[in-house]
Design a protein that fits this description.
The protein starts with a helix and ends with a helix. It contains 14 helices and no strands. It is mainly alpha-helical.
Length: 299
């Protein structure tokens, strides 16, 4: 990978890793649904002028129904779920759970698109989900947290629901939106998420005005972690290919753990690190990024 492209790759991991920090800073003041709504609204406002500049608005209008559904699955529901989860679990734990997206994506593609995995990919799925079980075993309590009043188990389940939605959205996009310009998919999905979240978010909008820190976090979420990040991600897909772009998944938990420890005082436990490594190894196997020779020769 060229140095300039590698720099963009690391920057993308840093931005998406920071999204968990910014969600944590905003969700306390805004609440889960308003946080997600404000994030996609800012992102849509950032991306829409670029779409107009590229002259691709007509393409978006032609596929608005499919893009609306992708927006629900790929932004609205996941962003709301992660915002909710961060009321009760740490940014590091939620980021590690986010790294399971390729695992769920492989399962959905297997069941829906009949993309049957080979031996090494099946082994990766087993290892990855075993890592999830180990990581979340200590968070399986449904006893309400003393601060948030929400049980940690609900936060874990919300993260896993978000990653499942990402997996479904990936297969849906491949089947029904293949060939569309990346900027159309990015912008259309954000607009769809805005429409899907608007009514419940406005209904639950906080009675007291959120603070300056929360608003700054929302702007950073929308512009940097969603708008700019989408542009970088699709550039990587075009220039380095989807397989290499997908490996950014490995960087996100690293940055999220560092941000959480340095800026929020969160604790990084050996269990989190160990299970994170197990999950990432399973992810690498299940997506075909890692192909052990002994498994290949056994076929």
């Amino acid at each position: 990978m060229k140095p300039a492209l590698l720099a963009e790759f690391v920057l993308l991991g840093a931005l998406w890793g920071a999204s968990f920090l910014f969600m944590r800073l905003s969700v306390v003041d805004f609440g889960a649904l308003p946080t997600a709504f404000a994030r996609v609204t800012v992102a849509a406002a950032f991306l829409l002028p670029i779409l107009f500049w590229k002259g691709q608005v007509r393409i978006l209008l032609q596929h608005w129904k499919s893009l609306f559904l992708v927006g629900l699955l790929n932004s609205a529901i996941p962003f709301a779920c992660f915002s909710f989860a961060l009321l009760t679990i740490t940014t590091g734990l939620s980021a590690i759970l986010n790294a399971t997206v390729p695992l769920f994506g492989a399962v959905v593609a297997w069941l829906w698109l009949k993309d049957r995995p080979n031996g090494s990919r099946v082994l990766g799925l087993v290892i990855g989900f075993a890592g999830i079980a180990l990581l979340t075993s200590g968070k399986a309590s449904f006893k309400p947290d003393a601060v948030s009043g929400i049980a940690p188990a609900w936060g874990v389940l919300a993260c896993l629901l978000a990653t499942l939605c990402y997996g479904i959205a990936a297969s849906f996009t491949k089947r029904y939106l293949g060939g569309l310009p990346s900027m159309v998919t990015a912008t259309g999905s954000q607009l769809g998420a805005v429409c899907g979240l608007a009514l419940p978010a406005l209904w639950l909008w906080p009675a007291s005005a959120p603070g300056h820190t929360a608003w700054a976090a929302i702007v950073a979420l929308g512009v940097l972690c969603t708008g700019v990040a989408y542009v970088l991600y699709f550039r990587l897909i075009e220039q380095a290919g989807p397989a290499r772009a997908l490996t950014v998944t490995f960087l996100i938990p690293v940055f999220a753990l560092i941000y959480g420890a340095l800026l929020l005082g969160e604790t990084i436990t050996p269990l989190m690190i160990g299970c994170g490594v197990v999950i990432l190894c399973g992810t690498a196997l299940s997506t075909g990024l890692l192909r052990p020779r002994w498994l290949s020769s056994a076929r």
